[in-house]
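FAQ

Q: What does a record look like?
A: Structure on top, sequence underneath. For example:
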């Protein structure tokens, strides 16, 4: 058996994004010994890329805001499939968590009277996003990292977890006892023994071809939990953000923040028409401006104006863009136009204003596309962005269906239902990262000594990891399998779905699974990207199959799932989540499960705000 570097913790956190770091801080502050593992360097998690802001009903800019409105907005955005308890806790606790970040040193933009400034974002009734220009995630990660180090966390950077270890020695049964993985630099194996494990590994965007997600987001955490026997939920709901770059081709998919529209940016087709006014869903009509002037006034803080249709929920805006492109009214490179430069017609010193409010967007387009957004419109189109589905957790404690295994952040399901509102992820990370850390530490304390490691399981994981070296270059090329999977998911399980196409996707995924079992690579274990890709494939294939199976089962269109063959909502499906679980024979089980009933007082809030 290969050699291991061995570590022992009360709580092991997998992932050093916002959710992971917040969990670390909470667990370590309660006295637990905490280790954190991350695939890249500390500080480089996805959270650092977050631009627009963090949603919290602080009511600093509009005093009509409060947790009840935030709760109702989140439920409406999620089309009522959300875990109501998580939506309630999130809306109530987000303000405190933002103030906590401020107390730890996060410098948010300010109102004139010195309070945290908040901006408009899609689906939020009032300006609710605390932000730092369009670099909010950077400030958040910097703050959490700094605080985490002072709480005594031990960091294992550039390490990838391959599997969770179970006391039974069998995946799918018993209590979690730790994790096994390798480091990218030397290819050495690591064993992290732990009494409780928190998964905070982020999303799955790399399973698709066009994505705003970086290389790390291969759905590892979901696959780890699935193999350990945990339930996954809402896997059909993959968010396609409406505005990614479409040109140059090398940067296709990189995000263009919703903050551009929040600051007054408008969407036009090739005929110059603001097409978003043509299709406003009934449940948003009363909250949406019906003329351009009202929409503009909303973005400038007029409390009597309603939001422009560009700030409708992401699922809807993405589909409208898709429709314009398909109808031949798109831009030259297959997108539509997003114009912020037009605000010079309304604002003095508009150029400086844009550069101050959207500095990253200005530089992104200048450097990557040689385009000055203060003068010209951008070309944008939908990009795979966020996973609403994930590990099913208890709303209060964040424990999964496997004892001792917790999940938080994008890797966990529930809060966002069928569609996430912008800004609700960063708040999700701190609210539920904090809860996961607290309850994981409590679990570790109340479950005594760490369960023993099953050496057979350890051996099986490492032997499987090394097999591609034995096949060498005669084996299947892992990169080619990855490309083929990304093409399959993009083309057949993308923004518009149909039964025959998704069945085709399932057949292709089955073939890719066979090929993935025969990957071969050359070279050695040091910084070997081919080897890393071969190991990532297993996660990407599991999440892709789960997304496809769940999308086939849900025979309706709701939130991020649009079925061309079932274009309407279905009353029965409005009462069900879809659960995915590994069967005892290893196959994927899929189940329709009724939503838990919403308490009357929360129902009343939803009704009141409809
Ligand atoms: P991440 O920050 O994604 O971190 C995951 C961690 O897990 C990383 O450290 C990674 O290395 C680690 N990891 C993964 N797999 C493994 C493994 N096998 N072994 C070990 N470690 C592993 N949301 C908002 O609310 N507001 C915004 O303005 C906003 N803007 C965004 C802009 C962009 C460009 C993108 C891509 C997303 C944006 N989002 C925004 C979404 C939000 O940033 C993410 O959903 C959120 O940061 C996810 O945080 P997380 O803590 O769950 O995971």
């Amino acid at each position: 058996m290969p050699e291991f570097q061995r570590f022992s913790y009360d709580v092991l956190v997998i992932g050093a994004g916002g959710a992971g770091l917040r969990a670390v801080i909470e667990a370590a502050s309660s006295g637990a010994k905490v280790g954190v593992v991350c695939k890249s360097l500390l500080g480089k998690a996805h959270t650092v890329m977050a631009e627009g802001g963090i949603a919290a009903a602080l009511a600093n800019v509009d005093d009509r805001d409060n947790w009840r409105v935030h709760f109702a907005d989140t439920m409406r955005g999620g089309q009522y499939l959300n875990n109501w308890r998580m939506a309630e806790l999130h809306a109530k606790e987000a303000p405190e968590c933002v103030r906590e970040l401020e107390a730890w040193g996060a410098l948010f933009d300010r109102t004139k009277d010195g309070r945290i400034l908040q901006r408009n974002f899609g689906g939020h009734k009032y300006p609710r996003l605390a932000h730092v220009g369009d670099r909010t995630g950077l400030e958040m990660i910097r703050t959490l990292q700094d605080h985490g180090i002072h709480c005594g966390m031990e960091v294992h950077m550039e390490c990838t977890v391959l599997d969770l270890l179970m006391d039974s020695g069998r995946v799918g049964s018993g209590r979690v006892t730790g994790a096994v993985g390798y480091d990218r630099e030397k290819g050495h194996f690591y064993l992290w023994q732990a009494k409780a494990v928190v998964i905070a590994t982020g999303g799955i965007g790399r399973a698709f071809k066009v994505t705003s997600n970086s290389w790390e987001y291969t759905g590892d955490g979901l696959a780890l939990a699935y193999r350990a026997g945990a339930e996954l939920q809402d896997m059909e709901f993959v968010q396609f953000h409406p505005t990614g770059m479409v040109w140059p081709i090398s940067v296709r998919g990189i995000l263009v923040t919703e903050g551009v529209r929040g600051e007054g940016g408008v969407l036009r087709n090739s005929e110059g028409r603001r097409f978003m006014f043509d299709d406003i869903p009934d449940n948003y009509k009363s909250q949406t401006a019906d003329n351009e002037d009202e929409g503009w006034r909303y973005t400038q803080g007029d409390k009597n104006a309603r939001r422009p249709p560009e700030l409708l929920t992401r699922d809807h805006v993405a589909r409208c863009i898709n429709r314009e492109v398909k109808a031949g009214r798109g831009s030259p490179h297959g997108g539509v136009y997003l114009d912020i430069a037009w605000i010079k017609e309304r604002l003095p010193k508009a150029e400086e204003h844009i550069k101050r409010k959207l500095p990253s967007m200005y530089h992104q387009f200048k450097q990557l596309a040689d385009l000055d957004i203060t003068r010209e419109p951008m070309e944008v189109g939908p990009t795979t962005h966020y996973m609403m589905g994930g590990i099913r957790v208890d709303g209060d404690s964040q424990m999964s269906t496997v004892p001792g295994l917790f999940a938080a952040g994008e890797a966990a399901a529930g809060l966002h239902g069928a569609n996430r509102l912008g800004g609700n992820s960063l708040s999700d990370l701190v609210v539920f990262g904090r809860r996961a850390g607290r309850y994981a530490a409590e679990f570790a304390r109340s479950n005594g000594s760490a369960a023993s490691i099953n050496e057979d399981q350890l051996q099986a994981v490492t032997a499987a990891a090394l097999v591609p070296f034995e096949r060498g270059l005669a084996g299947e090329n892992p990169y080619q399998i990855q490309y083929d999977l990304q093409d399959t998911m993009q083309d057949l399980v993308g923004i518009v779905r149909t039964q025959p196409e998704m069945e085709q996707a399932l057949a292709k995924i089955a073939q890719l699974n066979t090929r993935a079992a025969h990957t071969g690579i050359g070279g050695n274990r040091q910084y070997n990207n081919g080897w890393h890709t071969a190991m990532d494939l297993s996660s990407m294939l599991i999440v892709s199959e789960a997304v496809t199976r769940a999308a086939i089962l849900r025979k309706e269109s709701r939130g991020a799932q649009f079925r061309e063959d079932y274009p309407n909502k279905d009353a029965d499906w409005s009462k069900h989540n879809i659960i995915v679980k590994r069967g005892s024979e290893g196959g994927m089980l899929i189940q329709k499960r009724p939503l838990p009933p919403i308490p009357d007082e929360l129902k009343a809030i939803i009704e009141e705000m409809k």
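Q: Is there anything notable about this one?
A: The two ends are 61 Å apart (CA to CA).
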